[in-house]
Amino acid sequence: MVVLFGVVLAIVTQPLNAIATKRRGAHAAEIAELEAERDLKYQEIRDAELDHEMGKHSDEDFAAVDGGLRAEALEILNRIEALQGASDDVERD
Amino acid sequence: MAGLGRVALILALLVCAYGIGASIYGVRSDQDRWIDSGRRAVYALAVVLVSAFIVLEVAFLSNDYAFNTVADSSSATTPLFYKAAAVWASQEGSLLLWAMLSSLWSSLALFLVKGRLREVAAYATAILLGFAGFFVSLMVFYANPFLTTHPAPVEGAGLDPLLRFSTMLIHPPLVYSGYTLCTIPLAFGMGALIARKVDAEWIKATRRFALAAWLFLGIGIVLGARWSYAELGWGGYWGWDPVENAALMPWLVATAFIHSLMIQEKRGMLKVWNASLVCAMGTLAIMGTFLVRSGILNSIHAFGGATLGVPFVTLIGVLIAASIYLVVSRRDILKSEHRLDSLISRESVFLLNNLMLVGLCFVVFWGTYFPLISEAVTGQQASVGAPWFDRYTVPLALILVLLSGIGPVIAWRRASFANLRRNLLMPAVSALVALGALLGAGVMSKPLAIVMFCLAAFVVGTVAQELWRGGWVRSRAASQMLPVAIAGLIKRNRRRYGGYIVHVGIALLFVGVAASSSFEHLSEPTLTVGKSVKVGSYTVRYVKPTASVTPQSDSAHTGSTLNLGAVLRVSKEGHYVTTLRPTEGFYDSGEPSEGSVGHLIGGQAVSHVSMSSTISRDVWSAVEPDISAPSLQRIVEAGNKTISMMRPEEGMIAIAVLAREYLKSPPPAKFNLRVFPFVMWIWIGAMIVFGGGLIAMWPAPSTVVRRVSVRVGRRRRASHGLARA
């Protein structure tokens, strides 16, 4: 029982006893969120391309959908770059 | 040892309380180390509960009858593997199993999101520890698995005979894994609402665990159906039993959630709906556990035990209130980002699919809980049987299968009528070919079953077309052979094609259900040796009786004192088909009042089914020997008068005499004989469903996104990133 208690104590207190904790970058959470959105958008683009190749989208519909998706992806990439740039500036400062 | 277990439970409760406090403090004060400490409390909880579980397992395996649960559920003659599973036969042990599985799955989930979703994960940690703490509290205050009696009984009561089957080993852990996995998306959903971060990262983290919950719960449900069919003697696989329904409801909602989550991923729509679904899924899982553990409804699963109704109802009430509060108060962040572009779109089909699934869940919910509500209001118990459920679930199931065929061929956002006609042509032809084949074979009765067969052909046609076209595109692009291209297509688009394979499995499963229930042949004759009966196109003859006495002949390790049965010869149009050997096991009741011989066979009688299975039909049999026949009862009464309770070996001699008498002059026996067409397709369909689910869940090969140099222009940079998509 003492061993079990000791193991529990060691597990839960380890972060509290750590000498230094890794500093999170500024905007890290927002960048992570945008990267998740980016990955989803890439998947959508792939799905739309496959749908078009398999004949589910007409050429016109595909052009409209693909254009919209790529514009949304570009917007996300721009936001990621802006935040990464801002993070770099904060860290330099 | 029991002391170690009791202290472990108290330690677990303390760890839960600490972890909840540390996580909330950490997220409120923006201190990562406290959030991390809270997360690690979940790991520590898993260590403690696994230790407690091992203590109880060792007690069962070492026949330590000082433990009340061991004395109630095990015995020296219980086979080893049943002893190992008997841990979760009791209410107390099953609570420990639930808590342990919850801590293990929670540990895995939090480990996988480590470093991401910081605020959401912190709140989710607190909620998951809250659930675990609830179950640990039940054990500490209401149903302690480590309670002991001194002096310890010499022998245990043994495992309930109904549970002495191999599926009993795996069914509860799978179902409980499903239930506990349902609480993970719930915790992350509530955490996301509390932190106001209902976004893509949350979807990505939650989706896989929702799929895992769906998979485990589904496997557990099918195993339960298989157990009912292959082991119990009533002659079916699904009886709309409350505990069956309790697992089905969260599974239906999980299915809806997995589909509607895709709409939120792609279009930022249905956020309120998804938040509500994820809360409903977790709440229904807790309600399912409540039904199983509280004994509040009569069911084969609810085997006794003190009611835990009040704590469970309190928890369920809190969950419902919290869910409603969170969804309503966060409706500003749950606004849809887009509107439906077209009614002819995959979004529309998914919406309809969701409505059907939630509708099905509502029907099952009403039919399951109506007896309780009725009893509470009128004071009289009511019951809802299979015909009521079938009346409402069959039409919904037909629509669902139809939608599962349309969904894959319709594009996201918008599809034109022309495209839709083109893409639905081949599946429609498949359905018509199936209809023609059925009519040609003279299958004209049971129109709903015929519709289901045609819709299943429609679904198979759809998926086959998708694989063919996608494979053809890939084989041209990559210069590959078609089978290789199809394999590559599935590998690169696991979610999509895993889902399509699930649809095929569901279609086949429903074909099995429709065929076996609509075209079943049944006979329940009482036969003497040599007599025959017709069941559908088969003739079943009672050839001779069988009898065996434990332990020498207990090859199935069932622990029954006496097994009486029959040899049945099955033929069709004069040709031999198979031989069936159903038996019924008679168990020790443990009641001295039934006499020194009577008690040995006075316990619950359990049927051992015998069946012959092929791809096109099962011939199924169960027997109910008449042990109350005067010729057999004379032996029991004589034994009771002359044999002392202190000489059980003489009692077994009397049982052997009874067995010999049964073989010599068998009384007429009652049989339950059935022919189920295509019932094997249920199990095959289920395996395909779960195979597809595994494929959909498997992590895709990661997409490498290159960080492009700032010297490249913006548009080219974006294009490079997209080219790697």
Explain what the structure shows.
The complex is a heterodimer of chains A (93) and B (725). Chain A is elongated. Helices cover 82% and strands 0% of the residues of chain A. In chain A, helix 2 runs antiparallel to helix 3 (59-92). Chain A has helices at 2-17, 28-53, 59-92. Chain A has one domain (26-92). Chain A is built from 3 helices and no strands. Chain B has 3 domains: 2-343, no CATH class; 416-520 and 687-697; 524-678, no CATH class. Chain B is built from 22 helices and 11 strands. In chain B, helix 14 (417-440) crosses helix 15 (447-478). The longest helix of chain B has 33 residues, at 346-378.
Tally of alpha and pi helices of chain A: 3
Shape annotation of chain A: elongated
Q: Give the overall silhouette of chain B.
A: globular
Low-confidence segments of chain B: 299-305, 703-721
Helical content of chain B stands at 55-70%
**Rg of chain B:** 29 Å
By DSSP, the count of extended strands of chain B is: 11
What class would the helix/strand composition of chain A place it in? mainly alpha
Helix content of chain A: over 70%
Query: What's the helix-strand series of chain A?
Result: HHH
